[in-house]
Design brief:
Bound molecules: glycyl-adenosine-5'-phosphate
Shape: globular
Distance between the termini: 33 Å
């Protein structure tokens, strides 16, 4: 983990949020290569879930909605984590996380009384992560929804707040009818959305794994009740295959079944990834029954029923959900493709990203920075490539150093413009360049006219 965190900072992938002000807990900023990687992660997901699925469409709904959305969803009443405060240093911790450390597992659906009973039974074994004391107060429930005064101009707005969305899928449910009425979709169909979500996490931790402001990629498939479990099984398989197709090793991903289901759910499994701190949830795949549409129908008074055009049957569609965080995928991708090896007798760090995820697809170097004819030709090649691929021009330091830098950000190819490119020594090589492969270090001479095809293979 330390190596990944340090690489992310050193090479401009991830910075601590508000760093010059001493940081802001649970907040991180994506730097120049981080934003490219995050965008590629989102593009890969969007391509798999929207562009390649004939019956899934996209959506970008508002972050702040009518507050009733969050009453209907159950978040205002029940979206909370168990909080416990250290009486010695006032540090607030998640009671279930402290319990996990002494190998006692608390369920998120436990009542305050139940979790207090569990906590009390092992209280003497649990120490405050900050000061080490064992002086905890009682466990209370802390609501994770983030309140905002958007559109509320009263001085005391907190009794009547709006909320920053705690998950993106509520925007999907409330647009179910709009999408149905404005497009060609028919049940079963899905709506996919990528966007920011906010949770007042009591103890954000494990770097970008648990943040307060994070991004989700969610797809809700609206299905006929009788088809729910069939489509659930199909989407479980598809989502696991997605990670294998991205290049994740099979031993690094596994299923985890939720032990206690919420009353409306038919099934819930997580895809867990083998993060540097062990297997943890990356994505959830859930069969949610008709709970969500029922709730919004009840609270809004608007019918969410679907009239099947083939059978004339009217029903409330059930929902199969897939939900994954961009930030967690980012951390999984960094973990999966981080490598250290030796090339040409030199140790190096290399990110073996698949091409579609690599922040930079090709780096273009003039062999020497102080030879204008090389620099000019390299800029020409950069201009040509950058029309088709995310390219970077680099003339800093010697070529060996530039290779190391590009290896560390996972660039699959480096192109060097040398004197042969200018045809100075061997006219046969005029207008050819050296292409160096990140993984093998092999160098190939390629005519500039064939470069784009070569790099896109
Ligand atoms: N709509 C279902 C839902 O939101 P969730 O398990 O609470 O379910 C789904 O969240 C995914 O969102 C998780 O699997 C994880 O990848 C991501 N996620 C949740 N909370 C997060 C946090 N605090 N920081 C980063 N990612 C988070």
């Amino acid at each position: 983990m330390d190596k990944i965190v340090s690489l992310c900072k050193r090479r401009g992938f991830v910075f601590s949020g508000s760093e010059i002000y001493g940081g802001f807990v649970g907040s991180f900023d994506y730097g120049p290569y981080g934003v490219e990687l995050a965008n590629n992660i989102k593009a890969a997901w969007w391509q798999a879930m929207v562009h390649r699925e004939p019956n899934i469409v996209g959506l970008d709904s508002a972050i702040v909605t009518h507050p009733k959305v969050w009453e209907a969803s159950g978040h205002v009443g029940g979206f909370s984590d168990p909080l416990v405060e250290c009486k010695a240093c006032n540090t607030r911790s998640r009671a279930d996380h402290l319990l996990e450390e002494v190998e006692v597992f608390a369920d998120e659906k436990m009542s305050v009384e139940e979790i207090n009973a569990v906590f009390d039974s092992v209280r003497e074994k649990i120490s405050c992560p900050k000061c080490g004391e064992k002086k905890f107060g009682p466990v209370t429930k802390f609501n994770l929804l983030v309140k905002t005064n958007l559109g509320n101009f009263k001085d005391d707005w907190s009794a009547d707040p709006a909320y920053l969305r705690g998950e993106t899928c509520q925007g999907i449910y409330i647009n179910f009818k709009n999408v149905l009425d404005s497009t060609r979709v028919k049940v079963p169909f899905g709506i996919a959305q990528i966007g920011k979500a906010f949770r007042n996490e009591i103890a954000p931790r494990q770097y970008i794994f648990r943040k307060r402001e994070f991004e989700q990629m969610e797809m809700q498939m609206f299905v006929a009740p009788a088809d729910e479990m069939k489509l659930y099984t199909l989407w479980k398989e598809k989502r696991m295959q997605y990670y294998l197709d991205l290049g994740f090793k099979p031993e690094n991903v596994r299923w985890h079944e939720h032990e206690n289901l919420v009353f409306y759910a038919k099934a819930a499994f997580d895809i867990e990834y083998n993060f540097p701190f062990g297997f943890k949830e990356l994505e959830g795949v859930h069969a949610r029954g008709d709970y969500d549409l029922t709730q919004h129908q009840t609270f809004s008074g608007v019918s969410m029923e679907y009239l099947d055009p083939y059978t004339n049957e009217k029903y409330l569609p059930h929902v199969v959900e897939t939900s994954v965080g961009v930030d967690r995928t980012f951390l999984a991708v960094m973990t999966e493709f981080y490598d250290e090896d030796e090339l040409g007798g030199e140790k190096r760090v290399v990110l073996r990203f698949p091409k579609k995820l690599a922040p930079i697809k090709v780096a273009v170097f003039p062999l020497l920075k102080n030879r204008p004819e090389l620099v000019e030709k390299a800029k020409e090649v950069f201009a040509l490539l950058s029309e088709h691929l995310r390219a970077e021009f680099d003339d800093n330091g010697n070529v060996g150093k530039r290779y190391r830098r590009q290896d560390e950000i996972g660039t699959p190819h480096c192109v060097t413009i040398d004197f042969d490119t200018l045809g100075e020594e061997n006219p046969m090589l005029k207008d050819t360049v050296t292409v160096r492969d990140r993984d093998t270090g092999e160098q190939t001479r390629v005519p500039i006219t064939e470069l784009i095809t070569y790099l896109q293979q």
